[in-house]
Design goal:
Elements: E1 2-6, E2 19-23, H1 25-33, E3 49-53, E4 62-66, E5 75-79, E6 83-86, H2 99-110, H3 113-120, H4 132-140, E7 142-144, E8 157-160, E9 168-169, E10 175-180, E11 185-190, E12 201-202, H5 211-222, H6 235-252, H7 259-267, H8 275-291, H9 298-312, H10 316-334, H11 340-345, H12 355-363
Parallel strand pairs: 2-6, 9-12
Antiparallel strand pairs: 1-2, 3-4, 5-11, 6-8, 7-8, 10-11
């Protein structure tokens, strides 16, 4: 493993624009050789959030709060990491038990005042059970899924941020974190409407797990008992929540490849009832929004299905509604709306517009 700083050889940038990286030599070589990378970025200005005390519920720790109303899909935060480190490293000779700590200590020695001071201010949930620097990293790290270099040796990386690390957990989150390789930064987008003054929440665990497993994972990895709205539901409602989450993940593993064929067969056959496809899709969408479980397989499929179905019915209001929802989701997941903004602006220009209405007219008996 080696240590480097990204962006390289750019002394004119402010301290928070740099990231210290612990990585494989091949990854360092690829990063330094990438022309024009990483791309610059501009976070929202003025900021739409503030970092302040989250109160007794969070042991008087800090949290991130909206200072303005935020729409689904809006970018809220974007920043470079203080530190990126591999979660798994090859074991050289000597001191194998502290290998990760050794690399972190070497990285710490190369950090400037800003990075050290900011890292020291972050929470360490492990206390004396872990060496301080490792405890801070393990408490605050978010996934940095990809780095330049050969994909077969790239490994799994984690990033520790300044402000993103202040976002607390909920099993019913209202924002989504994503790693953006082009700008070498972490981004947070809203996927629910957020009012000024509301706290921002991401998830630290797999939201499709039932409540008991989520609680177990959070206690093990972060040493707290979650008291979010989903985890304090009465027993019966909690079971319903677990059941919905289980069905969401099971449905995501079903064969969804024939969605367009099924949709077109319905749209062109007026003998089939109008609600045949939209009612089921509305239920799935409602459950995902209620639980705030944005399954990356099921949600885009359901939104696309609803938008196309309402276009076929020439229902402009609902077609726009679900196209806007798809645009917001794609921004949160991919950083762009993937063309859904154009659909939301002019659903009548899609190839699906009026398919079912025309099929009805063609079947209607002539007088």
């Amino acid at each position: 493993m080696v240590i480097t700083k990204i962006p390289a050889n750019k002394r004119s940038l402010p301290a928070d624009a740099y990231t210290h990286v612990v990585c494989l030599p091949e990854v360092k070589k690829a990063m330094l050789a990438a022309s024009g990378w990483p791309a610059p970025f501009s976070p929202p200005s003025p900021p739409v959030y503030e970092i302040k005390s989250a109160g007794r519920k969070y042991s008087n720790g800090l949290g991130a709060f909206a200072v303005a109303d935020i729409k689904p899909g809006d970018l809220i935060m974007q920043e470079r990491a203080l530190l990126i480190t591999s979660r798994h490293v090859a074991l050289p000779k000597g001191d194998k038990g502290r290998l990760r700590e050794i690399f972190l200590e070497q990285c710490w020695a190369e950090m400037g005042h800003f990075h050290r001071k900011t890292m020291q201010a972050l929470h360490n949930c492990y206390g004396s059970d872990a060496e301080p620097l490792r405890g801070i990293v393990d408490t605050n790290a978010l996934p940095a899924d990809t780095l330049p270099g050969p994909t077969d040796i790239g490994g799994i990386y984690s990033a520790v941020f300044n402000h993103l690390a202040r976002i607390n957990h909920s099993c019913s989150p209202n924002v989504r974190y994503r790693w953006d390789i082009e700008t070498f930064s972490g981004q947070v987008h809203a996927f629910q409407p957020i009012k000024a003054g509301e706290q921002l929440f991401i998830s630290y665990c797999d939201l499709e797990y039932p409540r008991g497993l989520r609680q177990e994972e959070l206690r093990k990895l972060y040493r707290f008992d979650c008291a979010c709205p989903s985890c304090v539901l009465p027993r019966y409602q909690g079971r319903l929540s677990d059941w919905r989450r289980l069905l969401i993940i099971e449905q995501a593993f079903q064969d969804l490849s024939k969605t367009d064929a099924d949709l077109r067969a319905w749209a062109t056959n007026p003998r089939l009832p109008d609600p045949m496809l939209v009612d089921a899709a509305e239920i799935w969408y409602g459950w995902m929004m209620q639980e705030r479980v944005l399954n990356s397989v099921l949600l885009p499929t359901v939104l696309e299905r609803l938008c196309k179905a309402y276009c076929a019915l020439e229902d402009e209001g609902n077609a726009r509604k679900y196209a806007r929802a798809a645009a917001a989701y794609e921004k949160a997941l991919e950083g762009s709306d993937s063309g859904w903004g154009i659909v939301a602006a002019s659903p009548e220009k899609t190839s699906w517009w009026g398919l079912r209405v025309r099929a009805r007219r063609q079947q209607a008996p002539s007088i």
